[in-house]
């Protein structure tokens, strides 16, 4: 049983896990966007070749994949810290901020690769982008995460 008057600390402790979970959800959204972009880049042909063979598209996909791996590693690191019971308010805010913002970028790049198809309801990219815009809001906006990080850094 927790001591009386410690409710705020309990609530704040749940925010750490919620922020890690939202980061993981954003990772899944970004992964789906990357997968769809790769499929489209292989299947869509222009000028006699798949658009994925064009350097600009290939570099966008490479950047998306690199960002995705950085997000995955960061989530695993913070989740492991939380699992071990170590304090991680700052790191949970950082991972939520970083991954949700990167997921938005990845989904926007995916939309660019799909072009007009990305806006059509028949293609899931439009849903991935909408989902990626919502995740930075839950469990505290990106601005709130920056406030938490700054405070934890002594500012």
Account of the 3D structure:
73% of the residues lie in helices and 3% in strands. By secondary structure, it is mainly α. The protein has a single domain, classed as Up-down Bundle (Butyryl-CoA Dehydrogenase, subunit A, domain 3). It has a two-stranded antiparallel sheet. Helix 1 packs parallel to helix 3 and helix 3 runs antiparallel to helix 4 (125-134). The two termini are 34 Å apart.
Largest sheet: 2 strands, antiparallel
Regions with little confidence, pLDDT below 50 for 5+ residues: none
Total beta-strand segments: 2
Number of domains: 1
* Rough outline: elongated
What is the annotated CATH architecture? Answer: Up-down Bundle
Going by helix content, strand content and strand pairing, the class is mainly alpha
Number of helices: 5
Ends apart, CA distance between termini: 34 Å
Q: H/E order of the elements?
A: HEEHHHH
CATH top level class name? Mainly Alpha
Averaged pLDDT, please?
95
Give the C-alpha Rg.
Answer: 18 Å
Give the strand content.
under 5%
Q: CATH homologous superfamily - what is it?
A: Butyryl-CoA Dehydrogenase, subunit A, domain 3
Strand order of the largest sheet: 1-2
Looking at the structure, the CATH topology is Butyryl-CoA Dehydrogenase, subunit A, domain 3
- Please estimate the helix content: over 70%
């Amino acid at each position: 049983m927790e001591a009386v008057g410690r409710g705020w600390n309990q609530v704040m402790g749940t925010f750490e896990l919620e922020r890690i979970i939202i980061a993981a959800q954003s990772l899944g959204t970004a992964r789906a966007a990357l997968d769809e972009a790769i499929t489209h880049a292989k299947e869509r042909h222009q000028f006699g070749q798949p658009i994925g063979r064009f350097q600009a598209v290939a570099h966008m996909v490479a950047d998306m994949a690199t960002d995705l791996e950085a997000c995955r590693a960061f989530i695993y690191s913070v989740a492991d810290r939380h699992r071990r019971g170590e304090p991680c308010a700052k790191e949970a805010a950082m991972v939520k901020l970083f991954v949700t913002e990167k997921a938005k970028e990845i989904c926007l790049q995916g939309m660019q690769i799909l072009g007009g198809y990305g806006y059509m309801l028949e293609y899931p990219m439009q849903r991935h982008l909408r989902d990626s815009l919502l995740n930075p809001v839950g469990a505290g906006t990106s601005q709130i995460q920056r406030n938490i990080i700054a405070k934890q850094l002594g500012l």
